[in-house]
Amino acid sequence: MTDAFEDLFRLEAEQRGAPGLAHVIIPHPLGGIQPEAVIARAEAATPDLRDALLGGSA
Amino acid sequence: MSEAESLTALAATLEVEELGTGRASAMVELPEDVAALSREFAARGWSDGLPVIPPTAARVEAMLDARDLDPLEVVAILPPRRGEATVQAIAVNAVMAGCEAAHLPALLAAVRAIAHPEFNLSGVNATTHPVSLFLLVSGPIAAELGVHGGSGCLGPGFSANATLGRALRLIQLNIAGAWPGCGDRATQGTPAKIGFCATENLEASPWPPFQTTRGFDSTQNTVTVFGCEGPHNIQDHGSNTALGTMQTIAGAMGQAGSNNILARGSPVLAFGPEHAATVAAEGWSREDVQAYVYEHARYPLAALSDEFFEAVQDHTSQGVPVPPLARDALAFIADGPEAIHVIVAGGPGKHSSWMPTFGGMTRPVTVPIPIP
Lengths: 58, 372
What we know:
The structure holds two protein chains of two kinds. By secondary structure, chain A is mainly α.
């Protein structure tokens, strides 16, 4: 999710019994930006995504 | 099983679902002065910012004493905080909002409605869209409680409308944890989030009561909750025919910028009595109105940007992809004619309104009001 929603994510994850749920944070917003910027966000998030998928909690 | 039967069955299932016994509300020492207490509640994040009636043990017990209810019965678990909406906690918020004891059964039904999976309260609270909770009280109980459906019914001045709507919002804030900027992610919000409750003006309506469209008969008491925006006015002082009036209404509803143009769903159309009379005088039924609005309240996708068009193509309604449309097609605003919810409300004048919804990500839910 984007960083603007991180607190809501943490609240929901904790209340649903998964406080350590793996996740990846990217800068807000994602909507309304240019395609090149979307690709740059994806590339920047790739290491965190890899860690999250391999069992870490980014 | 029809949609209405399905909803009724689901509502009944919710009523018997074993949610268990919840925790008792905590007791705290607070100032006796109402103004000081209201400031204290606001500072603690326990209010909507308006003054509150102090929810003393005596006031809460008085509200509960009027009913044979278990105070610790969990009526629903409300996201995002997954707060336990016990009967007692609901009564606390009802007292704070200024409700009378007689209002409690309607409020309990409204809490069950927003907890229904089809309402999608998690999404309603997490979205940036300004979703309010519009309580439509139907049946004989509306008049008994003083819920107003005549002149100015969507505005100020009517205690039952104001306090019931406010109580459900306080429950959202204090039990669900729907705090602006955290548990409620609305970009701007809406004044309708403060409280939004009314009933139909049945004396002036040419059509059967709303709850009959939801599988109930006209003598049954129900609450329907819509996840929608505040009312958007529809003015037509010129038309004196059914078709002319409907052209204006459809034109107003087929607008750019609503969530319904993005993901369809179940918008609300609230006829003012004079517009309803003009339309019904030529024999139009509620179903005729729904069919016309579905076909004509549409917006030309050609008038929108390429990037918006692509977003529309990718969207879903309740998890089901919205059928793709051509670049030169007219976008629909509802899932079908039956998904356009038509009521009659207000007093004299050539004004109606419509309430865009969160789109297909929520469905209105109707729950019977049990009177113990």
